[in-house]
Design brief:
The chain is of the alpha+beta class. The chain folds into 2 domains: about 270 residues, DD-peptidase/beta-lactamase superfamily (Beta-lactamase, 3-Layer(aba) Sandwich); about 90 residues, Lipocalin (Beta Barrel), CATH 2.40.128. About 30% of the residues lie in helices and about 30% in strands. The strands form 6 sheets. An 8-stranded antiparallel sheet has the order 3-2-15-14-13-12-11-10, with helices on both faces. A hairpin with a 3-residue loop joins strand 17 and strand 18. The longest helix is centred in the first third of the chain and has 18 residues. The N terminus and C terminus are likely disordered.
Length: about 500
């Protein structure tokens, strides 16, 4: 059980038949405000659906300038993307463009693993319910952080992997499944998702393009509280938006997504997918029991976590990434659903708000977790002071270190001079250099949230290579020909 729920003794008693979606949103919004203040959550959007009626609330701010969250504010929803990808694959199967139970190699003949028997038997259904336990950390790192993934690298990485053979939640299952959709249609998964689901359902503010989302004035930027105000964090790019975690949506569009499932594939009388397809995605496909803050998961449907909430069938998915948290819940037999989106690492508050919305609409009792969280403030963290290495700290002139370095598997590492200090990036993933001399470097990612040791090698008076310890092993980036990038 969620520790906050276990620690909370107060409960809220409700009418047996619950409240309307509007009443639920009003009550939860009021309760969430205190929790947001205590837990340093800048902004949050709520959506509740019951009996065909939707209600919304925008709480807090969407950016460091203090502009308010609205029901139409775009939030990155991370792994909630998986449920959309799964429904896309299920619709293609409905249209006889592929078969969920055929071997994956029927549409991806180049797919290989270190375990040939496992590779030959894995199906799309296996992937969509996390059955194989196939987790390729290198592919995930390039997909989600650096953007340096290519199909050549992706399949080369997989050919070195052995699946665990037991149910395990991973991004790899979905980035692999999306490649099957791309293979049968010859289009990127982003375009397929838009043409097959988003546009027909009218989810016009849901996008798999970070460039579209962040160019929008009404977009929630990832924020962190440091010192006297909010500061922006690293944002996603088009290259790091992938089929396991690559969508931005709004509270209003999330309600449409929920409504599509409650209406078994129809929106406004228009059939988008067959009722049987919707039911299949929310049906138990693989057992994997776990308690998640009041939701008793029995296992996985096609992407969805499925189980029982106070005896009622549910399907839910969560999403968490630097500066974002989201949860979407559907109670298909009750005509109820809820979505909570935040621009902060606020999974506990998001979880509590989603639980409160659903519980209020269902009726009965619910632990007052939001009230409890409001009494548990988090300390204000000082803004990171890491700013890159000086020449003295690097143990060498910065001009001799700056340049572009490559690794066949992991792509490009760039070192450049900014304001007299050495900083860099691996693909789209920026870092600052922490150095204690020529032989002792460390790369600090996300303001020091994670660090990687690095061993520089010098030749003929300049940095020839940098060996970085990533994913549990040293990875060597060798200097490319050509001069260093210009100082900024």
């Amino acid at each position: 059980m969620n520790p906050a729920v276990a620690a909370c003794s107060a409960v809220i008693a409700l009418a047996a038949d619950g409240v309307t979606s509007r009443e639920a949103v009003e009550q939860v919004a009021a309760a969430a405000a205190g929790a947001m203040g205590a837990r340093a959550v800048p902004g949050m959007a709520l959506a509740a659906v019951k009996g065909g009626e939707s209600a919304f609330a925008g709480l807090g701010v969407r950016d460091a300038d203090g502009r308010p969250v609205t029901p139409d504010t775009r939030f990155y929803v991370a792994s909630c993307t998986k449920a959309y990808t799964a429904l896309l694959l299920a619709k293609l199967a409905e249209q006889d463009e592929l078969e969920l139970d055929d071997p994956l190699r029927a549409v991806l003949p180049r797919f290989a693993l270190a375990d040939e028997e496992a590779a030959a038997g894995i199906t799309l259904r296996d992937l969509l319910c996390h059955r194989p336990g196939l987790n390729c950390g290198a592919a995930v790192f390039l997909d989600a952080f650096t953007g340096e993934i290519t199909d050549e690298r992706f399949f080369r990485f997989l050919a070195r992997e052995r699946p665990s053979g037991r149910c395990q939640y991973t991004n790899t299952h979905f980035t692999l499944a999306a490649r099957a959709a791309e293979a049968v249609r010859g289009e990127p998964w982003q375009e397929l998702l838009a043409s097959e689901l988003l546009e027909p359902a009218g989810m016009t503010r849901t996008t798999a393009r970070a460039s579209v989302a962040y160019a929008d004035e009404d977009c929630a930027w990832p924020l962190d509280r440091g010192g006297t105000g909010w500061r922006g964090l690293r944002v996603k790019s088009d290259l790091t938006m992938h089929a396991a975690g690559g969508l931005c949506t709004t509270a209003r569009d999330a309600a449409t997504w929920i409504g599509l499932h409650l209406a078994r594939g129809s929106i406004g009388g228009r059939r988008i997918v067959a009722p049987e397809t919707i039911e299949e995605t929310m049906a138990l496909q693989e057992k994997s029991a776990e308690e998640e803050g009041g939701f008793a998961r029995e296992g996985f449907g096609l992407a969805w976590n499925v189980g029982r909430f106070q005896g009622r069938r549910f399907a839910l998915h969560s999403g968490d990434y630097l500066g974002y948290a989201a949860k979407i819940v559907v109670l298909p037999d009750e005509g109820i659903g809820a979505a909570v989106l935040a621009n902060s690492d606020a999974s506990r508050v998001v979880q509590a708000a989603a639980l409160a919305l659903v519980a209020r609409m269902v009726g009965g009792t619910v632990p007052d977790e939001l009230g409890w969280l409001a009494t548990q403030p988090v300390p204000v963290r000082a803004a990171p002071t890491v700013r890159g290495a000086t020449a003295a700290e690097a143990g060498a002139p910065l001009e001799s270190c700056a340049g572009t370095f490559r690794n066949d598997d992991f792509g490009t590492l760039a070192l450049r001079i900014e304001s007299g200090r050495l900083v860099g990036s691996i693909g789209e993933y920026p870092f600052e250099l922490l150095a204690g001399g020529a032989g002792s470097w460390r790369l600090a990612f996300d303001g020091g949230a994670r660090e990687s040791p690095a061993q520089p090698s010098f030749a003929e008076g300049r940095l020839a290579a940098l060996e970085v310890h990533l994913l549990g092993r040293p990875i060597r980036f060798g200097r490319e020909d050509g001069g260093p990038p210009p100082a900024r």
